[in-house]
Specification:
- With about 375 residues, this protein is α/β, with parallel strands linked by helices.
- It folds into two domains: about 1-180 and about 355-375, Rossmann fold, CATH 3.40.50; about 200-355, Rossmann fold.
- The chain is built from 13 helices and 13 strands.
- A seven-stranded mixed beta sheet has the order 3-4-2-1-5-6-7, with helices on both faces. A six-stranded parallel beta sheet has the order 10-9-8-11-12-13, with helices on both faces.
- Helix 9 (about 290-295) links the parallel strand 11 and strand 12 (about 300-305).
- The longest helix is centred in the last third of the chain and has 19 residues, at about 355-375.
- It starts with a strand and ends with a helix.
- The relative contact order is 0.12.
C-alpha cells in the first residue's frame, strides 16, 4: 500500500530529537508499505510563502521537507492550504496514497480536508502530552474534535493518552499503538558487575516535568550515606545551568556528570554501560527512554503515573510516588545493591515482543488493511 505520512514534528540535522518517534513509526510502516513523508515546518524568515528544502530518500523513505510562512490568516489555515497544494504536486508526479496517516492532530487538519477532497481514509496518531496535562486552548480543543471525529481511527501511544483524548469529548474508534524502540541500536550487552562504582543514568529534558531537581535532592540525601555511585545526566534545556548550580550547591557535583545532548547512538552506549536507569517524571506521554533502557536489559526506576504503570512491573524495576524525595532515595539505595538480581534477558525480551519496528509496523499494517477492506 502507499501511505502518506503528514507529521507535525520531524527530526532534522538541527534538531535530531524533534519528533524522532514519528520517524521511527515511518520506518516501521515502511517495512510493509511504500511510505512518503511530507513535512512542513514553519519559518517566518523565508521570503516566499513556501520553499521546498529537499525531496530525497532518508533511511530508505522518500521525505519531502518544506519551509513555509503564514499569510494574514491563522497559521493552521496557511499550513493546510500549502499542504493541499503540495499534495496535488505529488499526485501529478504519479504517486497517490491509499491512506493518509497524520501524526499529531495539528497535521490532521489538512489530512482530513484531503481525505474529503480525494475520498481517502485518514488515520491520526497522537503523541502530544497537552491532552494529559490539560494544556489545550478552547480553539485547539475544537480543532482536535473536528480532526479526530473525521478520522477513521485514532492511534494514541498509550492508554492514558487515549483516556485524556476521550475526556475532550471525542467519540471514535481507538487503538493504542506504542512508540518504537530501535533494537538495532538499543540492545542488551553483557556487563561485568565487578566495578565498585555503580553507574546510574538519566536521559531527558532538564526540566521539572522529568523530576530532575527531585532526583538531585535524592542524590544529595543518599550521598550522605554512600559514595559508591555516579549519576550521568544526558539532556539539555535553557535551565541546564540552574541544575548544574543546584548540583554544586548540594555538594554532589563530583558524583553528578552533565553531558548535554547526545545522539541516539551515544545514548545507547551510555545505557549499555549503566547499571540501572532513573527518571522520576511528573508527566509522561509514553516514556520512550524507559523502554530504550529496558531494551538494553536495564532495570528502571520511574514514578507511579499511569503511562509508566502500563509498562513497569516488579520484574522490570521500581515505581515511586512522584515528588517524594525519600521514596526515591529508598528506591535508588535498594537498586544500587540489587540491580544485578533483575533478569536482563527478561527485561530485554519484553521490549522485543512489544516495541520493535517489526511488531509496531505489523500492527499498523493490519489497521491499514482493515480500513481499506471496510472502504470496499
Amino acid at each position: 500500500m502507499k501511505i502518506l505520512f503528514l507529521p507535525s514534528w520531524y527530526p532534522s540535522e538541527y534538531n535530531p530529537v524533534k519528533g524522532i518517534f514519528i520517524k521511527e513509526h515511518a520506518k516501521a510502516v515502511s517495512l510493509f508499505n511504500d511510505v512518503v513523508v511530507l513535512y512542513l515546518e514553519y519559518d517566518g524568515n523565508i521570503k516566499t510563502l513556501w520553499k521546498t528544502l529537499s525531496d530525497r530518500k532518508e533511511d530508505g523513505i522518500r521525505t519531502i521537507r518544506v519551509k513555509y510562512r503564514k499569510l494574514l490568516i491563522p497559521k493552521e489555515i496557511t499550513y493546510s492550504l500549502i499542504t493541499i497544494k503540495l499534495f496535488r504536486k505529488i499526485l501529478n508526479s504519479g504517486w497517490k496514497p491509499d491512506i493518509i496517516h497524520a501524526h499529531i492532530f495539528l497535521a490532521g487538519l489538512p489530512a482530513v480536508l484531503l481525505g474529503k477532497i480525494y475520498n481517502l481514509p485518514v488515520i491520526v496518531s497522537e503523541h502530544w502530552s497537552v491532552f494529559t496535562r490539560s494544556k489545550l486552548s478552547k480553539s485547539k480543543i475544537s480543532m482536535a474534535r473536528f480532526v479526530f471525529n473525521k478520522a477513521k481511527i485514532i492511534l494514541p501511544v498509550s492508554k492514558n493518552l487515549e483516556k485524556a483524548i476521550k475526556s475532550c469529548g471525542i467519540r471514535n474508534r481507538f487503538e493504542v499503538i506504542p512508540n518504537v524502540v530501535n533494537t538495532d541500536i538499543f540492545y542488551q550487552e553483557p556487563k561485568n558487575y565487578k566495578s565498585k562504582i555503580k553507574n546510574i543514568l538519566f536521559v531527558g529534558s532538564l526540566s521539572e516535568t522529568k523530576g530532575l531537581s527531585y532526583l538531585l535532592h535524592a542524590i544529595n540525601v543518599l550521598a550522605k550515606k554512600r559514595k559508591d555511585f555516579i549519576l550521568d545526566i544526558i539532556g539539555d534545556s535553557r535551565d541546564r545551568k540552574r541544575y548544574e548550580d543546584l548540583s554544586r550547591d548540594l555538594k554532589i557535583d563530583e558524583m553528578v556528570r552533565f553531558h548535554g545532548l547526545k545522539s541516539k547512538d551515544d545514548v545507547a552506549k551510555f545505557m549499555k554501560q549503566c547499571d540501572f536507569y532513573v527518571q522520576p517524571s511528573v508527566v509522561e506521554t509514553f516514556g520512550i527512554t524507559f523502554i530504550e533502557a529496558m531494551a538494553c536489559g536495564k532495570p528502571v526506576i520511574g514514578t507511579k503515573i499511569p503511562v509508566l504503570e502500563e509498562k513497569i512491573n516488579q520484574e522490570r524495576g521500581i515505581l515511586v510516588q512522584p515528588g517524594n524525595v525519600q521514596d526515591l532515595v529508598n528506591a535508588i539505595d535498594y537498586m544500587l545493591d540489587h540491580y544485578q538480581n533483575y533478569s536482563s534477558e527478561k527485561i530485554s525480551l519484553y521490549v522485543k515482543e512489544n516495541f520493535t519496528h517489526e511488531v509496531i509496523g505489523k500492527k499498523i499494517d493490519n489497521i491499514y488493511r482493515d480500513i481499506l477492506c471496510a472502504k470496499k
